[in-house]
Amino acid sequence: MGSSPAGTQESIKFGKDFEVDLRSFELRHGGRALKLERLPLQVLVILIEQKGQLVTREEIAEKIWGKDVFVDTDNSINGAVRKIRQALKDDPQQPRYVETLSGRGYRFIAPVSDAGHMPAPLQLVAKPQPSHTDSAPARPLVEPTSNQPDLPPASITPARRRFPLWIAIISCCAIALGAWFAWQHFYGKGATQSIHSIAVIPLQNLSGDPAQDFFADGMTEELITELSRIDSLRVISHTSVMEYRGTRKHLPQIASELGVDAILEGSVIRENNNVRVTVQLLDGPADRHLWGEEYERPLNGILNLQRDVAQAIAQEVRAKLSTTQQARLREAHVVNPASYDAYLKGRFYFDNGFTKPDSLKKGRQYFEESIQKDPNFAQAYAGLANTYLYLAFTGVLPKDEAYQSAKKLLAKAVELDDGVGEAHDTLGVLKSEFEWDWEAADREYNRAIALAPSYSCAHESRAGFLALFDRRDEALAELAKIDQLDAGVGSADSEVGVFYLLRDYPSLINASNRALLLDPNQWFLHYNLGVGYEGTGKLQEAISEYKKVVEMSDDPKGSVALAHAYSAVGKKAEGEQILRDLERKLKGTADSPLTMAGIYASLGENDKALEFLEKANSEKSLNLPQSLKSDLVFDSLHSDPRFQDLAHRVGIPQ
Questions:
Q1: Which of 359, 481, 410, 438 is nearest to 68 (CA)?
Q2: β-strands 288-298, 274-283 pairing
Q3: Which parts of the chain are TPR repeats (predicted)?
């Protein structure tokens, strides 16, 4: 970096006629301004500042948001890099500007001129941005700074004070707009009759406290959850809408990108034990207002507020509600405000880190705190149960300990409220992955979808379940539903899992490559891409991907797969060396017998492989059913009657 004083540089030039103007903070090409939102441009400047050097995702997140802030940094960074590449027309497979270093981060590789000491364009706080329409509330872009507290408790909210004048003005305008929309509804044109899909854009935090961003995001997710219960309304998932936080895009563009008829946007003001939510429903393609309303409730009535909004929208779009759905929306529920705060924090850590042990542990702490503060809050029990299952999947907790805890928690959740779709989805996972009770799992997945037809996680769970049993058409139908609800990482990961289980290797390659564009740092995506290559006979490509898995993860699955592929190309000595080293490393440890079975199957020691598979069966090892059906290392055992008998007892098709 240069040593010139801060603020002396006005632009950065790089590549072929690209320039970042640091005064207007925009990207230009040949003097023409390009469309690139603020967050991707911030990421681009960070990468250029460290040109030629690795910049980790953690470094990017800390520079933009600070430490331990309630923001979905992984998805935000993925989306930002994707938009940078689109603006620069940069191919991620053969990059000229931004190179992805798998499992580590990114590196800017283009030549840079005039890259001296740059101003700090990242420390921007609460700069208002234009709204979609003249009558919509202003949409501030709040970028938390690095001195924010780790987990802002409810107690940091200032003592009750008068609302600032600008908030009062916004509220009055919202009330007036609401009255006008109501008049239009009853005496004007009324609501459109063609709304079948909706996206809830992240609610703005107008509390004057950036530490309350997590509350606004949590409210957004809970509104999506409530609306997802309406059978006749397709509701876009939380992960797909988060990239539109603080967006400058016009409504028709957002509606087109998400494929929806209507958009719900609004704001949240939280003061002490009260919350005020202003929402408006807009016709996306036509960019016109349909309905608006303001709600104010004590915090312990937040669940009722969410259901009131859902019911009002159902009426506005003339959605058909079943008797059960109508009764559900009329139910009155109260929750302890501190419990709800803790629940939202638990959801944040789980949703944004269900593959990360540290994030899962924090999520567990907050769900436990939520239950402690309100023992009758069913959603907290369901969230904690789900966290326990994923702590087992990531190897943090012993399988049996996680299973017993989750089983008790789910029983309590259903006892308190049998209408929580998330609880039934998690019950399906428990029945499928831990008990191998296939009929019960199928019932629970169907129950979850019946309770919340737009809950994408339930469709993801059921898609994998159907693929395991070769119910291909039904599994692909679920994938189509997921694609309508979640255009992000969740949809891509679901495709990868389904095509792996169906042993559809060309489709697995395509799905894995698409998923890696969204998230190149997940080792299991490289593993599945390797499986796709190996399944189609492209063994050198498979070996390349398996090597990446070994570099990125300590999971022995990558080493076993690499050794198996080496043997297939005639490098048996290299493959055997890997397997013998792994055998010595794992011998006498508590590692899964499924891994040992894979080692011996790859070595051609079938008797030992079957011995460990039987042990895995007796212990109900996680992923045994999936491995018996689709793991290439066990293909050599398929003709053995002992293997066929085991598969029959587990209950999966051959």
A1: 359
A2: antiparallel
A3: 523-556
